[in-house]
Amino acid sequence: xxxHLDIATLTDLARRAEARTPGPCACTKTPLDGWQSxxxxxxxxxxxxxxxxxxxHDPEPTFAEYLPGKIGYWSADxxxxxxxxxxxxxxxxxxxxxxxxxxxxxEGGGYFVDRRIRALRLHLIEDVAL
Length: 130
Fold this sequence. Notes:
The chain is α+β, with helices and mostly antiparallel strands. It is built from one helix and five strands; from the N terminus they run αβββββ. A five-stranded antiparallel β-sheet has the order 1-5-4-3-2.
């Protein structure tokens, strides 16, 4: 199992990644600022798992979402709140080509499975208690 990343470690990883990756990304044509179904144009072999935000001692983390105001789940401005869903089910991945960090999880519904991905943005990380 990948290492658990607490909020301080996640923040530090995001800070370092943003400092070394200026400019636009050429790894995918789909913008990944907000949650997206993982695009087929993204070469998965370029991604390396860094760790997980899934709570260490909680086999079934909450499904509660943290979306203040009128922000929506798909919004590029939605906060990244690691204690809330879907972040508490995410792994953190690094692109070996550009050095950017991404959050990934699998959304499972009644008749589908959807791999979702979102760029990790330092200014959106919020340490909000449940």
